Write the structure tokens for this entry.
Amino acid sequence: MQNNEFEWTIFGRAPERRRTYIGESIEVLFWEEIVIDEIKIAPGYFEPKWWSSNNRVKSLEIIINDKNYIIDFKDEKKIQNIVFDNYLSFKEIKFIILEVYNSNKDNDTGISEIIFYKDGKKVSLN
């Protein structure tokens, strides 16, 4: 974490060749409620030499305050935006991988970044 910006990298290794991380989840708990209106996600491993040789997230379920959002991603190596109609305030958020774009080599699935925004600015956590 740099300059109190909330970012992280998730990259998992599948112990078995046929495992794709479908159904795996990332759950984030915050000390205090945060308010957002946008999430930016890098739905794959963004290192150029690894992009196509690893699975990329095709569909993701996001659960906030017991409300479910199903998000579909393009198979493009770029940050993809999820914009909500209203502000969302929460202390807990969960991301569940529903579907992946299959790799041409390995069966790992990566999410390079998840970044929260409010009014076009990164959410800072102090």
